[in-house]
Amino acid sequence: MLATRLSRLLSQLPGKTLSMYDREHGARRPLLFCSASFIPVSRTYAGEVDPVGSKAVLVTGCDSGFGFSLAKHLHSKGFLVFAGCLMKDKGHDGVQQLDSLNSDRLRTIQLNVCSSEEVDKAVELVRSSLKDPEKGMWGLVNNAGISTFGEVEFTSMETYKEVADVNLWGLVRTTKSFLPLIRRAKGRVVNIGSMLGRMANPARSAYCITKFGVEAFSDCLRYEMHPLGVKVSVVEPGNFIAATSLYSPESIRATAKKLWDGLPDIVRNDYGKKYFDEKIAKVENYCNSGSTDMTPVIDAITHALTAATPYTRYHPMDYYWWVRMQIMTHLPGAISDKIYIH
Ligand SMILES: NC(=O)c1ccc[n+]([C@@H]2O[C@H](COP(=O)([O-])OP(=O)(O)OC[C@H]3O[C@@H](n4cnc5c(N)ncnc54)[C@H](OP(=O)(O)O)[C@@H]3O)[C@@H](O)[C@H]2O)c1
């Protein structure tokens, strides 16, 4: 009864519907909550903020992957782009490619999100590059991230901390440091989460807990920033590993060796090498099965930065993962575990 009333109320609110991203048509497909079912309905994007010409955006993790492509894409849209690169000082290939554009609207900067010193320097550099620092900076895209795999018993405390240092604490640090500039512009914060920040997966605990943390942090920030005119969005990509450098066959092999060599004897003996190798084969399979086209992710981030009414969450992922995420997050664990985990 309550659910039906709530559904009716929700379906009468334009722009307040649950929605997913349609990569083919560049449009959102809102899902109206009708009684017990979700019905996909087409809707086009909201109007965009205009013009982007003078707007400054900082993206973290631009050496490769989403960050690298996004920096180039935002530059092509007319933004002033500050591309934070972990390896600028070491002359990373991606950094050289961005620098070779020779544009005064695309500046690579050395930025390790785990270093307060480097983050502070980045804030100063951006502030001093703005025409009018009192008008602030339009956008921050927290994209830098690392990943790993391994069952809970296979994963060392050092690994848990290492992944959280970049994906969670690095994101929190960078956000806090840039907020004074973002607030002045009534701008945007776009956090790159993951579908694994909504639903967990076996052998991914070190990564999942950081991405669940990103979701919680983003929600709190969105609530707090709303009265100040700053909009906060989370982009939750599905499996695009084949399109980025998050994993490579070499890094999987290296991580597997490190895991096995570092296991306590009791864990190694209890699970055995056969079990371990089967799990690694599953990871390899997952990494080879993702989408090779990262356009949906780049489009979602761009929408979050430019639309007058950006969405709270974006779901650039294929239908298999989207359906799985709905089932994992809406059905009782006893059912969803049976379907997808056991
Ligand atoms: N690919 C996917 O399927 C997928 C799915 C969901 C979410 N994501 C998220 O998307 C984001 C981008 O990942 P990606 O897939 O594009 O992988 P990627 O190609 O490995 O890009 C990640 C970038 O972050 C940089 N980075 C790592 N540690 C850093 C640090 N301490 N400070 C600053 N930058 C750092 C990396 O630099 P180096 O290259 O120099 O190491 C790299 O440029 C991550 O947050 C990831 O969790 C990816």
UniProtKB/TrEMBL annotation:
<keyword id="KW-0472">Membrane</keyword>
<dbReference type="Pfam" id="PF00106">
    <property type="entry name" value="adh_short"/>
</dbReference>
<keyword id="KW-0443">Lipid metabolism</keyword>
<dbReference type="InterPro" id="IPR020904">
    <property type="entry name" value="Sc_DH/Rdtase_CS"/>
</dbReference>
<comment type="similarity">
    <text>Belongs to the short-chain dehydrogenases/reductases (SDR) family.</text>
</comment>
<comment type="subunit">
    <text>Homotetramer.</text>
</comment>
<keyword id="KW-0999">Mitochondrion inner membrane</keyword>
<dbReference type="GO" id="GO:0003858">
    <property type="term" value="F:3-hydroxybutyrate dehydrogenase activity"/>
</dbReference>
<dbReference type="GO" id="GO:0005743">
    <property type="term" value="C:mitochondrial inner membrane"/>
</dbReference>
<dbReference type="InterPro" id="IPR002347">
    <property type="entry name" value="SDR_fam"/>
</dbReference>
<keyword id="KW-0560">Oxidoreductase</keyword>
<dbReference type="GO" id="GO:0008202">
    <property type="term" value="P:steroid metabolic process"/>
</dbReference>
<keyword id="KW-0809">Transit peptide</keyword>
<keyword id="KW-0021">Allosteric enzyme</keyword>
<keyword id="KW-0520">NAD</keyword>
<keyword id="KW-0496">Mitochondrion</keyword>
<dbReference type="InterPro" id="IPR036291">
    <property type="entry name" value="NAD(P)-bd_dom_sf"/>
</dbReference>
<protein>
    <recommendedName>
        <fullName>D-beta-hydroxybutyrate dehydrogenase, mitochondrial</fullName>
        <ecNumber>1.1.1.30</ecNumber>
    </recommendedName>
</protein>
<dbReference type="GO" id="GO:0005759">
    <property type="term" value="C:mitochondrial matrix"/>
</dbReference>
